[in-house]
Amino acid sequence: MPDGAPAPDGTxxxxxxxxxxxxxxxxxxxxxxxxxxxxxxxxxxxxxxxxAGPTCGMAPTGSWRGSARLQWDASSGFEYVQAEITWxxxxxxxxVDTYRPAGIVRHGWDDSGGQHEDQATVSPGDGTLVxxxxxxxxxxxxxxxxxxxxxxxxxxxGSFDGDVFAGLLVGPQPWPRWSFARVDAVFPPPGDGCxxxxxxxxxxxxxxxxxxxxxxxxxxxxxxxxxxxTFTPSGTAxxxxxxxxxxxxxxxxxxxxxxxxxxTLVxxxSTAPPTFDLGLSYTMWPAEQRSTYPDGTVTTEPTVASxxxxxxxxxxxxGDHFSARLADDDTGWTFTRGK
Length: 339
What we know:
Elements: H1 20-23, E1 64-74, E2 77-93, E3 96-111, E4 114-122, E5 127-132, E6 138-145, E7 151-160, E8 164-168, E9 175-182, E10 201-208, E11 213-225, E12 228-239, E13 242-243, E14 248-252, E15 255-258, E16 265-268, E17 275-278, E18 281-292, E19 298-310, E20 313-316, E21 321-325, E22 332-337
Antiparallel strand pairs: 1-2, 1-9, 2-3, 3-4, 3-5, 5-6, 6-7, 7-21, 8-9, 10-11, 10-22, 11-12, 12-15, 12-16, 13-14, 14-18, 16-17, 17-20, 18-19, 21-22
C-alpha cells in the first residue's frame, strides 16, 4: 500500500511525500570520497587526542569526513543545501567530543527557470558535531548552517560502534541525508570478494511518526547472490493512536504479527563499507477501531488495522550497531547484528 493512500479503515493517512524519481533523491553531486578533503575549506588544527580514560566506552575517534544535506520538495521543483566537510575535534569534556566543520556548501534549486547552484565556504562556527563516547555504542548529533543559505544539518542524530555513521530519512520536510566516515578509516575495495562475511540475522527497531507506526523486527537471511543478501522479517508491528481535529481513534489490538512478505531487507556487501536498503514495509491485522469525538461520543467498529513501519530507509554502515533518527521525533531506525 503506497504512502499517502487511505488507511484500510478509511481514514486518510498523512502524506509522507514522494521521493523524486521513484525513491532516489535528485542528484546534486556524489557524496565526498572518504579519502579526499573537499575544495574550498581549510581544516582547522586539531588539539591532541584525549586519553579515552577508564570511564569511556569507546576510544577517541579522530576527525570525520563526508557530506550532510537537507532537501525541500515542492510541486514546481526542489531545493537543497549540501555541505561537504571535515569535522575536526575542538574540545572534549569527559567522554563527550565537540567537533567543528571546514569545507564547502552548495545551495541549489530546480524550478521552472531551470537549475541553479551557489557555493560558499564552511567556517568552523557554522556547525557542530557532538559525539558521546560514554558507552561502547557512541551517540552523535549534528547541526549546521552556512549563510546565506538554509541549514545543511538540523539536529539529526544516531548511534554507531564502527567507523561510519549515516542516514536518509524521507518523511516530514526537509529530508535529511548524511554520511560520514572516520578520516583514518580504511575500506579496501572488496575486489573479487565481499567487504564482510554474511550475517544470518539482524534485529531492528523502526519508527515512522508521521504514519503513527513502528515495529520490532528480526531479519533472517533467506538468500545470497554474490555479495547481496536478502532478508525476510518476523516480529511485531504497532499502530499508535491517531489524533485528528475531528476524531481521535485507536486500534484494539494495537499490534499485529509481521509476515515474511510484509517487507524485504537487502544488504549489499559488494561495496566498502556495505550498504543496507529497507523499502516500504507494511503490516495489517484484524482489529476494532475505537473513535472518540470532540463531544465525548465513542464508537466502535470492526476494521483492518495497519502499520507502515518503514520506507526508504537506506545508507552505508559499519560495525554491529547503527541507528539514525530525525531531530525532533523518533522517525528512523536502529539495527543490531544478530548472534
